[in-house]
Here is the input.
Amino acid sequence: MIEGCEVIWAVKHNSISHTFLDAGAAQFMIEHVNARKHKVDTNQPSKRLKYGLDEPSERDNSSNVQKTTSTALGPDWHSGLDVKGAVHGTSRNIHIEYRCEVAEIVNPENLGQTSVCRLQDETANVDWPMYAVLSNQKCFGCDFIVSATGVVPNTQPFLKGNEFRLADDGGFLVNEQCMTSIDGVYAAGDVCSVDWPPAPHWIQMRLWSQARQMGHYAGKCMLAATHGQSITKDICFEIFAHMTNFFGFKVVLLGRFNAQGLGSDYEILLRVTKGEEYVKVILHNGRMVGAILIGETDLEETFENLIMNEMDLTQFGSDLLDPNVDIQDFFD
Here is the structure.
């Protein structure tokens, strides 16, 4: 949890969390980004395995061992991590710079005549251990930098001497058994791109949760192959579903939550309660095909069933999101 810190967020797009949230949902978040204080109860049991970094052993410290990092630590890497700064009287203060990226990181000795931007409460002559120069020509001093650079399939180390078929994004193309174009070689998660007709409500996104699901499925496919068998795809490939947390808000993404692949042939239903919830539904031919749920809406199970059942909801119109209608009970 971040306490007493000034945060400068450089965003590549016109709104925050562009991969997940539309501009409206992003604006809902922005209005509360500095107001909400979210305390994670670290004493509660986790429903996921947690991973961390061990201190190197004596054997690992020997000169003969190459020191490399391992895989991603998953969504709970920050659990129990407290960052407490010297700014008193505030939980956090976030300043956002849109449509820019970090162009260069420089130390004080190499700063030269670069003009440094100061935040409203920042001491004018404070010296920082490092400076981030943004692509919009602004420069900010900081104590440390967290870099979120997206996901690119890391296939390059495996290409030399092999003839893998690759997708346009560089990922290994895999069939319905998660096998690549080379017999007996399987791939799952961020490194691959599916080469099968996806279910109507499933999309591939390079997320930790989806990579884990694909890894489990690929393992079962490999085991089945050793017995000359094949298996059908798991239920997780029937509908896209992802739950996360932004600024203390529970966020659930279902199906084609941003109308992916629908062009302009869709309808949006929206319900917003300021500071509490943001509910967006995507309808295609009168049927629900996706949804974004922010806050404690308790609608995820109902909406998931409506998407999977492909029920014609034309007769309900905007009443589908009427807060005075208990749709959970209605569709039970």
About this structure: The helical segments are 23-30, 208-226, 300-309, 327-330. The two ends are 38 Å apart (CA to CA). The chain has a mean pLDDT of 85.
